[in-house]
User: What shape does this take?
Amino acid sequence: MTTVKNAVVLVTGGQRGLGKAFTDALLAEGAAKVYVTARTPKPSEDPRIVPLPLEVNDEQSILRLAEAAPDVTIVINNAGATVRQGLTEVGLEDTRNLFETNVFGPLRVAQVFAPILAANGGGALVNVSSALSWLAGSGIYGASKAALWSLTNSLRPLLAKAGTQVLGVHLGYTDTDMTAALDVPKNDPADVAKGLVVALVNGDSEYLADDASRYAKSLLTGDPKTLVIV
Ligand SMILES: NC(=O)c1ccc[n+]([C@@H]2O[C@H](COP(=O)([O-])OP(=O)(O)OC[C@H]3O[C@@H](n4cnc5c(N)ncnc54)[C@H](OP(=O)(O)O)[C@@H]3O)[C@@H](O)[C@H]2O)c1
Assistant: This one.
């Protein structure tokens, strides 16, 4: 169980999309301060919101972030990207870049912030994956989120030793810039964020935010041919 009231939170990519919704929900629940990152951060009028720069593919940027946010009790690895090319045509450089952003960056954030969370009483590490961790999408994105899911599961028992809750988040299409080009039904980011706060407070290991992610996970013990987006 993680205390959100008076928490000091870091939300990577917290100035727009899901990250902004997480920030708003945590502040509404009584968080004292939220560090929000962007590659080019914009000033905030809310004194509880502290914008900081982060390029998650740059280790020095992550280390500078840790120096600027030594009091965090909850870290949300939310920043992420996608590529539109299909799995049979995406180039190696785009593939590597996507894994840098969605896998290696969040892992480095977890490594750098784990001792900070431990020193501040345990708290929580949240990794934002996707329903596509478990479904055969047409692109490389799902593979990157599956890798993040695996890392999340491996980090959980390691960080538990210091009392840190490790929470994996999975969700289907949600209405942000990432999905702006897709004409499909989408979750409201505010609804996803409200559920995240509940999962933190409950001390959950995993938060499946919608029917899409619950359906995807339910298929895992069956024939892999069924792991397709419906
Ligand atoms: N929207 C969906 O349907 C959906 C579904 C499942 C999972 N997710 C996941 O949810 C998370 C948030 O996505 P979103 O929908 O809010 O996407 P978004 O609107 O495209 O926002 C992406 C966020 O990630 C940050 N970011 C991207 N690349 C970065 C980098 N190299 N270094 C630092 N920050 C970087 C961006 O920061 P800047 O402001 O600097 O650009 C931005 O805040 C992602 O991990 C995404 O994969 C989204």
Q: What stands out?
A: The chain has a mean pLDDT of 96.
